[in-house]
TrEMBL record:
This is rRNA cytosine-C5-methyltransferase. The active site is at residue 405. It comes from the Bacteria. It comes from Nocardioides guangzhouensis. Belongs to the class I-like SAM-binding methyltransferase superfamily. RsmB/NOP family. GO terms for biological process: regulation of DNA-templated transcription; RNA methylation.
Length: 468
């Protein structure tokens, strides 16, 4: 008697052949794993993984959206998944949880049809983890697919009127302490909090900088860019690989958020008394601001010294600034709190201090899950020490720019206010130096605070100080 098709001797069926894992989803999954297990940064590991999978065009864009979107909305998805599993999420294998979050993102925040989101995630788990967890993944995602995002939020988020911070934390996928810190930073405009949190979850457009004397905005526009609102050197790309732009590939232009460009421009345009020949970037890594400053310095007959404490990052600064070498005094690996130069050596000093990064959550989505309030206990003293060092490095009549990519008050007003009480320090009105930037009053008079929801930039803070 003939055996049924697909049956083995003894009546056992052959297992169904495994379907190939979809490359964009596999790439996104690998990014999630690298961020979770290796401490990688999303914006750095993504291009590497995309190249590894040889993705281009729509596939590369899809992988980018899946990875970045999943990490941004992880808090929301974890709340939903917790309602769909029979155990604490901490008991779910980490590799499976990565896939569940990826599937939840497709179901709740994209136009991927539910059957495709579920089946491809099951295939992913089967191929990356094993057959055993595939059935569990299928069951959980089917439960997730029973409601849309709004319906899930009504079920899993605290009531907004009873616990506004708790609701915002789940609905906008920010830890509660971050929600509170951002609300405090908004001050009397705390009603904008929902807009700010939503902007943190929006994918940023790629912004290029045309380094003066090396590339022009017109050249970047001709390569597919669009003019921006604030920086005279900025162009936004509608899509595509920025590395394919000739000026970027040659180092004459670079990828740089418009807010970061404004920090460098603010220092370069602030008034100084007397000589204007020696500039310093005290915390130069990875080199974007240093490259723009060096290009500006070259046009004005000045030179920039770029200093970075970590030698490997100093090497990266040297590579980034190579095309602007005409305005570069050099790159040194030095601790900014223990200067390797004489006091009063520079006319202009930038201290772009290490910070929590909570103003750059659009581009560094993992920062919200890695940072804790305790980090400020280490960061704020370092920021104060670096600002003191920057002021000592500037000559009398010289100017210092203190910048952070965080709006948290402890890292902005909390660092600058004590310095303004010193008799040898006066303030330069940043709004007067950058008059084209509107609606950007900082937490202290004369300071500048950018916001993603108002300006489309990272939430950069700027204070301009002068040695008197």
């Amino acid at each position: 008697m003939a055996r049924p098709s697909g049956a083995r001797p003894g009546g056992r069926r052959k297992p169904a052949p495994r379907r190939p894992v979809d490359p964009p989803r596999a790439a996104a999954y690998d990014v999630l794993t690298a961020v979770r297990a290796d401490g990688a940064y999303t914006n750095l590991v993504l291009p590497q993984v995309v190249r590894q999978y040889r993705l281009a065009g729509r596939d590369a864009a899809f992988a980018t959206e899946l990875a970045s979107g999943t990490i941004r909305r992880q808090g929301t998805y974890d709340a939903v998944l917790a309602a769909c599993v029979d155990r604490p999420l901490a008991k779910v294998e980490a590799k499976v949880l990565d896939a569940l979050r990826l599937g939840a993102h497709q179901l709740l925040a994209t136009r991927v049809p539910p059957h495709a989101a579920i089946s491809t995630t099951v295939d992913l788990v089967r191929g990356k983890v094993g057959q055993g967890p595939a059935g569990f993944t299928n069951a959980v995602l089917r439960r997730v697919s029973e409601r849309d995002l709004d319906a899930w939020l009504r079920r899993v988020a605290p009531a907004a009127d009873a616990d506004p911070t708790g609701f915002a934390s789940v609905a906008y996928s920010h830890p509660a302490w971050v929600v509170e810190a951002l609300a405090e930073a908004l001050g009397d405009r705390a009603a904008e909090l929902d807009d700010l949190l939503a902007a943190d979850n929006a994918a940023p457009r790629v912004t290029l900088v045309a380094r003066p004397g090396l590339a022009s905005v017109a050249e970047l526009v001709a390569a597919g860019g669009e003019h921006t609102r604030w920086s005279p050197y900025a162009v936004e790309l509608a899509g595509g690989d920025p590395g394919a732009v000739d000026a970027v590939a040659a180092g004459r232009a670079g990828v740089q958020d418009e807010g970061s460009q404004l920090m460098a421009i603010g220092l370069a345009d602030a008034p100084v008394e007397g000589d204007d020949r020696r500039w310093l970037d005290l915390c130069a890594g990875p080199g974007g601001k240093a490259a723009l400053l060096a290009a500006l310095a070259a046009e004005r007959g000045a030179g920039l010294l770029a200093s970075e404490r970590q030698p490997h990052r100093a090497t990266l600064v040297a590579r980034t600034t190579a095309s602007a070498s005409a305005g570069l005094i050099g790159v040194v690996a030095a601790d900014g709190t223990r200067p390797a130069w004489r006091e009063g050596s520079f006319d202009r000093v930038l201290v772009d201090a290490p910070c929590s990064g909570l103003g750059a959550l659009r581009r560094r989505p993992e920062a919200r899950w890695r940072r804790t309030p305790a980090d400020l206990d280490d960061l704020v003293p370092l920021q104060r020490a670096l600002l003191d060092s920057a002021l000592a490095s500037a000559r009398p009549g010289g100017v210092v720019a203190y910048a952070t990519c965080s709006p948290v008050l402890a890292e902005t007003a909390g660092v600058v206010a004590p310095v303004l009480a010193r008799p040898d320090v006066t303030q330069v009105d940043a709004a007067a130096v950058l008059p084209e930037v509107t609606d950007a009053a900082g937490p202290l008079p004369g300071t500048l605070q950018l916001w993603p929801h108002r300006h489309g930039t990272d939430a950069m803070f700027l204070a301009l100080l002068k040695r008197s």
